[in-house]
Automatic annotation (TrEMBL):
<dbReference type="InterPro" id="IPR001736">
    <property type="entry name" value="PLipase_D/transphosphatidylase"/>
</dbReference>
<dbReference type="GO" id="GO:0003824">
    <property type="term" value="F:catalytic activity"/>
</dbReference>
<feature type="region of interest" description="Disordered">
    <location>
        <begin position="193"/>
        <end position="214"/>
    </location>
</feature>
<dbReference type="InterPro" id="IPR025202">
    <property type="entry name" value="PLD-like_dom"/>
</dbReference>
<dbReference type="Pfam" id="PF13091">
    <property type="entry name" value="PLDc_2"/>
</dbReference>
<dbReference type="GO" id="GO:0006793">
    <property type="term" value="P:phosphorus metabolic process"/>
</dbReference>
<feature type="domain" description="PLD phosphodiesterase">
    <location>
        <begin position="97"/>
        <end position="127"/>
    </location>
</feature>
<protein>
    <recommendedName>
        <fullName>PLD phosphodiesterase domain-containing protein</fullName>
    </recommendedName>
</protein>
Length: 560
């Protein structure tokens, strides 16, 4: 992270001031989002930035201000100017006494760089050019600077109610809202009868009853700021992985592994070690890792990780990296087993915890959330992790315009849909209707499996598919030969009725049971009658297995 002091008011040169840096940032190609939090705004401040905001609109995804109206510190003309420019602006008003909305914070976010300017400058001519002001500009690499990421996350967390527009104290600036603010005497006027634009020397909310002097706005050159890349180049202490490092790496990492085994299992090379070359090599690897970016070549980092090199010390970060790598290898195992010929890697999030790949799918879902910056799922994806996932063409979000949908992806998606069907208890020991997509799909899979068994083949359904789908069906009481299962269970149920009635006869309890439960006895006898009637129609090869059930039970039937 690079910190730069921005000050003006003491020196007429004012080489580094907030106004110049706002202009440089809006003109930069490094950013795509801007959010500004200011207590007060005047026409001079909004007009100075107008041409630069207009240019930035074509390349920025977001340009948004959150402006206060406490102590009549914001002018009517400033808000009119923002409305005319079409700048997304929100008015923050806290109606509690003695509470003033008072921040001066500017956030520029980009894919590679992030810039935070925080200090004492409002969106007024005094704030960005003439007052004696003090601010700090913080520049850092968006993805790899952990300290910068932590700071940005803390800011976004603190102002989350404003940024997600959920705060009841926040209102979108519209013509109607502007009229209301004017009626409530919350804004001051800057256009005078003599045609000059004047504004008070704002007192930031102190001594609001005291009459103030006005100042006249003068021209000021703002187009001399510096861009973020100027803050990161020419770093004299920056290390690089050179040709000699490649030449010595194999030897040194071998010595390092031996050092770990024989002297320090923690992997930390002591500064007192006699092998000074190993110590300096160890220090340099750490330095390169902490620099981020491409300082430490990808293949070198992987070899260090395999050797359990203590990145981030011997604590949680190293353990996290090692575990992450092991989980990543499980994704590769899944792909090689389930979908080895696909150009891309796709892992669905299975719903059934008994699925052998449930944890793999869950892990991939967590990586997607981390990549989106969801803090509930752990730290944001590191550059190393991002590159590892890219190395297997992992599909983060499926887009039919970008990827040709692999058939194996469709199959696993269908399996997940079937898991959703069986997640409802009422669907136990049933199959979905063939009128539905998932019912039709399941019927196709059952047909393929039975044909493969019948023809003694192995090319119609892979072993892993048979295992995954078979386990899911078995867990929910369904067999591959679903129709045969229904017939068999129906026959077995009727045989049970016959056995029950026969037992009543053997114990001479038929009359007693009929008197107490006539409907139940009738149902059992109806089942027996149906079974005898059905058995007369089974005299063919397709149904011969049903006679075997009757013979095994000893059920009397009329043999054909």
């Amino acid at each position: 992270m690079k910190a730069t002091f921005l000050g003006h008011g003491l020196d007429t040169g004012d080489q580094n001031n907030v106004g110049k840096q706002l202009v440089a940032s809006f003109e930069s190609k490094d950013y795509y989002s801007f959010q500004g939090f200011v207590a007060f705004a005047s026409i001079s401040g909004t007009k100075m930035l107008e041409p630069f905001i207009k240019k930035a609109n074509s390349k920025f995804d977001k340009i948004r201000f959150y402006i206060g109206v406490d102590n009549r510190g914001t002018s009517k003309e400033a808000l009119e100017s923002l409305l005319e420019q079409g700048v997304e602006t929100y008015i923050y008003r806290d109606k509690r006494k003695f509470v003033t909305y008072h921040p001066k914070l500017f956030l520029f976010e980009g894919k590679k760089f992030t810039r935070i300017i925080i200090g004492s400058s409002n969106l007024t001519s005094q704030g960005i050019k003439t007052n004696l002001e003090a601010s700090i500009q913080l520049d850092f690499l968006t993805k790899t600077d952990k300290q910068g990421q932590k700071l940005l996350n803390e800011i976004k967390s603190y102002y989350s109610d404003l940024m997600d527009l959920s705060s009841p104290k926040l209102q979108l600036l519209t013509s109607q809202l502007l009229d209301e603010l004017i009626k409530q005497n919350l804004l001051f006027n800057q256009f005078r009868e003599n045609g000059k634009v004047e504004e008070p020397k704002n007192n930031d909310g102190e001594n609001t009853e005291k009459e103030q002097d006005n100042i006249e706005i003068k021209d000021f050159d703002l187009k001399s700021g510096f861009e973020q890349k100027d803050t990161t180049k020419n770093r004299s202490n920056k290390k690089s992985f050179g040709e000699s490092d490649y030449e010595k790496f194999d030897t040194l990492i071998e010595r390092y592994v031996i050092y770990k085994k024989t002297k320090r299992p923690s992997g930390i090379v002591s500064k007192h070690t006699e092998d000074r070359e190993l110590f300096h090599w160890y220090q340099k690897m750490h330095k390169l890792y902490n620099q981020g970016g491409d300082s430490l070549p990808f293949e070198i980092f992987e070899r260090l990780l395999d050797a359990e090199f203590p990145f981030g010390g011997i604590g949680r970060e190293r353990k996290r990296l090692i575990k992450w790598n092991k989980d990543f290898n499980k994704v590769i195992e899944y792909k090689n087993k389930v979908d080895p010929n696909s150009e891309y890697t796709y892992v669905p999030q299975f719903k059934n915890k008994s699925n052998p790949y449930y944890e793999v799918g869950r892990w991939c879902a967590w990586q997607k959330q981390r990549r989106k910056g969801n803090k509930n799922y752990g730290p944001e994806l590191t550059e190393y992790e991002e590159r590892k996932m890219q190395s297997i063409n992992f599909i983060w979000e499926f887009d039919s315009t970008m990827y040709k949908r692999p058939k194996d992806d469709e199959w696993t998606d269908s399996l997940v849909e079937l898991e959703n069907y069986y997640s409802k208890k009422k669907n136990y020991k049933t199959v979905p209707s063939q009128k539905t997509y998932i019912g039709h799909w399941l019927n196709d899979q059952m047909t393929i499996k039975l044909r493969q068994d019948r023809e003694n083949r192995s090319d119609l359904m892979s072993e892993i598919r048979e295992e995954m789908l078979g386990n899911l069906l078995a867990k929910n009481g369904v067999e591959w030969e679903w129709e045969k299962q229904k017939h068999r269970e129906g026959i077995e149920n009727k045989i049970a009725s016959w056995r029950f009635v026969e037992e009543l006869k053997s114990k001479n309890q038929t009359k007693e049971f009929r008197d107490k439960k006539p409907k139940i006895l009738k149902k059992h006898r109806d089942n027996i009658a149906q079974l005898r009637s059905q058995s007369k129609k089974w005299n063919n090869d397709k149904n011969r297995w049903k006679y075997e059930l009757l013979d095994e039970a000893g059920f009397p039937y009329e043999k054909q």
